[in-house]
Amino acid sequence: MRYPLFAAIAMALAVPAAIAPAASLDPALAKAIADTRRSDANRARDIYRHPAETLAFFDVRPGQTVVEFYPGGGWYSEIIAPALKGNGRYVAFAPEKGVPGTTAMLDRNKDWFGPVTIASFSATAPSTIAPGSADRVLTFRNVHNLIMGGDAVAAKAFADFYAALKPGGILGVVDHRLPEDKDSAFEKKSGYVKRSTVVRLATAAGFKLADESEINANPKDMHDWPEGVWTLPPTLKLGDVDKAKYQAVGESDRLTLKFVKP
Fold first, then answer.
1. Looking at the 3D structure of the chain, how many domains does it have?
2. Tell me: the pLDDT tens digits for 208-230?
């Protein structure tokens, strides 16, 4: 979960699909998930974030060029980058203000991760990722930040995702799910986003919805907390206030959508 980063950068409804049968996870990714170099804190999140099932659903495997949009602290970076080391390419696509932090995170882990590429996202300038160079573009818990930055920012990001992918390439999106019957105004402040909003943004950029999964669903999440999604773990913005209650809920209810570039 991340606080809004982009505020300074100025479909129809459908019932979520049932869990799709998971594809086989590549052994290199399974090894990366089990790697004890991952921090205990990050490994503790596996029960909520389901990295094996999620990466299999997005059909991530060695030999690919995988772009991760704004990796933040590197939770998924420490799985994907080592799995591609020597056989593939990991690209961190960070917003301009996030590039220094992303660079520092990757530099700290360069022996573990191997060679990586850093590209800068701008709401107003062309992407620095070569068009048609990526097999996968993945974004974990970031679309709500883009929406908070404004419609133009979100549209530009999805256009950049589309341009980066090869024909047939996959865009994988995981984000905190706002139920369709909730007021859309909550998307601007709660950290939650509607499935229909993500589908609208992706479709406008040229993508086709290929599949969706309930891998990262959490029925305990009521979606209406005092400090939005940041009320829940791992942020626990209210500190010790009702901490046990929010820990019992766990991390947020999340949508998992797979789009393809025709």
1. 1
2. 999 999 999 999 999 999 999 99
